[in-house]
Backbone:
DNA sequence: ACCACTTATGCTCCGATGTAGCATAAGTGG
DNA sequence: CCACTTATGCTACATCGGAGCATAAGTGGT
């Protein structure tokens, strides 16, 4: 009974805003994959190893980086040798975009998660399939219906943006994503829309998205995705893109201001298409003080 | 450049309430250690492996179990071969206590974290040492002072219960815990009180405690530590023990009731030493609905 | 029986916070 | 000059959270 021989791999979900779209850094295709690499003897720490691999494979330096989750189920891929995957979430800006790899929109990979303006993907392509799955097995129907209603916000339940992972897992279980074994060779129209990724990378992406959506509610991490100076409108767009939903503008501004998260630069951006907006800068000092207190976001406007 | 050969180990922080004391399951001594074991080929998943090892080593079945963090820094111990440690947080009740291992009070291991009634450890033994460390290097003093003030709630900053890990790490850096290399052979009175553990297990414990304190604020996990029926007073004691601080009783009750987390059993417990208390039962149904909404706790009574 | 003390429970006051909407400012392109 | 866009200021109102007062119903002691 000796310990299993194992190799460990680092997996990075690197997020940046490209225009109005939240994107993830991917390599190769099709299907695309996340930057990843094995843990080597020279690596000092897991975090350092992740930084190195991302830099080597994509030519990009990461700023913010936090550990996400460690996966090691036996059936992750077909192979008998087990790989432990330690995943990280990184945040950057797409500036100086000289690297390799492609910024791919989150919502091309998980389209049902974008409920900012158009919920037709959700209501037309996902919800019906999910409901059908629930009713498929009469003995489980009531339990499944409850679960669907909560994770997808059906039957009067609220849509909860940060249940990303629960939604993906339900779709996987239901065989509604092509990665699922039970979706083997299902035709495209019996499957939910959204580009697939290598292995379980789409699940890892969902884990990252879930974490990020949860985190922006209590830590000022949004600013890691902004350029040094920005208007409150841009900041709001960013938050809305991440959360996948619209926010009450006036309340958003008040909240940001009263928390003293930003300071006025005295400059204005006239390129807004409307009244020029003031430019602000993130007050990095608050990172010290706000270890716990965090950014609060106004809860979401009902439409 | 092949992948490093590695073994992976599961580490469990298993928590239960023994009387009024929150405890962690430990083995051996001195110094005590957390239940742990290598990942073996037969293990289906990391979580299953953790369950097995805990059961085998302590004779206890776990209920709630969630992944905490994965450690793999090169300098974790002296050895050149790297071990990846994947830590889990488990919650149980100490019922049917037939197993091996000892329930050891959190606060014998991290005494400064208990600010429920007596803060003398903190104010007499920890704060002065921490302050001294900050002032030790004039060039870093201002930065360090800020950090100390925030993590330990000095100079008007609020005490934040869930900064457990930050506090431990500061003490470690400052050489104020005997585990720290820079505390090598320091006499006991130049070190902060609290029993040490094997390796970095005390850091892992701090990670678990931090997670738990954060989590009880937004998920109804406290109930995993309660027996099936309990009074609101017992529930409050449990929360206070976990958070390490006192809570306003009336507000606590209001909060629990208005969230409909519990239901009245119709019975009473006359053993309270005062007016008999109603017995309640956790409404397991809410686990479904409350995936995100969570238990809110009233913030803390000022004394 | 009465008293001091303990825990349980009900209720109110008030300030902070969050939600929603109205109104105005200052640009753009026709 | 007008219609439209985005930015920004302000207010009314509901809800929530924090703190305290008051009462209920047990205990043990004299």
Residues:
């Amino acid at each position: 009974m000796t310990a299993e021989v194992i190799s460990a791999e680092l997996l990075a979900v690197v997020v940046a805003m490209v225009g109005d779209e939240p994107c993830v850094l991917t390599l190769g295709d099709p299907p695309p994959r996340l930057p990843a690499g094995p843990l080597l003897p020279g690596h000092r720490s897991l975090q350092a190893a992740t930084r190195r691999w991302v830099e080597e494979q994509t030519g990009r330096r990461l700023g913010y980086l936090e550990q996400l989750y460690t996966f090691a189920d036996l059936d992750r891929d077909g192979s008998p040798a087990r790989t432990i995957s330690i995943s990280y979430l990184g945040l950057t800006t797409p500036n100086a975009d000289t690297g390799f790899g492609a910024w791919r929109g989150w919502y091309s990979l998980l389209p049902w998660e974008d409920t900012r303006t158009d919920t037709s993907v959700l209501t037309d392509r996902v919800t019906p399939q999910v409901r059908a799955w629930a009713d498929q097995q009469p003995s489980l129907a009531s339990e499944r219906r409850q679960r669907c209603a909560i994770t997808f916000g059906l039957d009067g339940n609220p849509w909860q943006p940060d249940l990303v992972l629960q939604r993906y897992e339900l779709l996987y279980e239901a065989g509604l994503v092509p990665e699922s074994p039970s979706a083997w060779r299902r035709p495209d129209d019996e499957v939910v829309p959204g580009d697939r990724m290598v292995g379980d990378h789409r699940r890892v992406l969902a884990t990252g998205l879930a974490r990020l959506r949860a985190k922006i509610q209590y830590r000022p991490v949004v600013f890691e995705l902004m350029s040094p100076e920005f208007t409150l409108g841009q900041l709001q767009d960013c938050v809305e893109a991440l959360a996948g939903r619209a926010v009450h503008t006036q309340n958003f501004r008040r909240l940001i201001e009263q928390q003293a998260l930003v300071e006025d630069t005295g400059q204005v951006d006239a390129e807004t298409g409307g009244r020029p907006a003031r430019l602000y800068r993130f007050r990095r000092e608050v990172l010290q003080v706000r270890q716990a207190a965090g950014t609060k976001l106004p809860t979401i406007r009902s439409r």
